[in-house]
Amino acid sequence: MIKTGLSLINKVSEGIKSRWRNYYYQSLGVKLHGYIWMRDIEIPRNFTDIEIESPCALDRGVTLLCSGEPVDKPRIYIGSHTYINRNTFIDATESIIIGEYCGIGPNCYITDHDHGYDAELPPLKQPMVSKPTKIGNNVWIGANVTILKGVSIGDRTIVGAGSVVTKSLPENVIAVGNPAQIIKYRT
Fold first, then answer.
1. Domain locations in the chain?
2. pLDDT tens digits along 81-107
3. Cα 162–chain centre separation
4. Residues with a known catalytic role
5. Class for the domain spanning 2-185
6. Cα separation of 117 and 149, whole Å?
7. Model-wide pTM > 0.90
8. What distances in angstroms separate CA 77 from CA 33, 64, 128, 133, 168, one per listed residue?
9. Phi and psi (nearest 5°) for 28?
10. For the segment 2-36, what is each residue's pLDDT rounded down to a tens digit?
């Protein structure tokens, strides 16, 4: 009985914290369309460049980072019914779109940019090179997956744990590896 009571208190406490985070980030300019379940997440800047549909859930340690001057359209867009697991980092300078009903495993990195590689410039002086990244609807991304700039992942595709996605994947496939390769077509 005591364990059940503590569990209920913990759930209520987490719900209150999540609602407070919704209010806090909305007040900073994040576009939240309804209630979003938010654990202890981080949005360090450019709040107005992020749009999230409801219902959606962001677990503990998720970071949404937009770099550059604020823009008129979202740099990070997350569709409804999507769950982003612990310690996932979404890093945008141009555009990252995540569709509806997606499941993203823990410790993933999703980006739309990297740096140039001019031999005459030191690493931190290299210009940013950006291309939009898009994840379709009903996509399942396993744990520890890296998705690089310019990649498009088709609807209903599964990316296996530990994969590095360097090139676009069509819909209805299973891909694994570094670099990710299609191993099966889903019927």
1. 2-185
2. 999 999 999 999 999 999 999 999 999
3. 16
4. 115
5. mainly beta
6. 15
7. yes
8. 11, 10, 21, 11, 19
9. -85, -10
10. 667 678 888 899 999 999 999 999 999 999 999 99
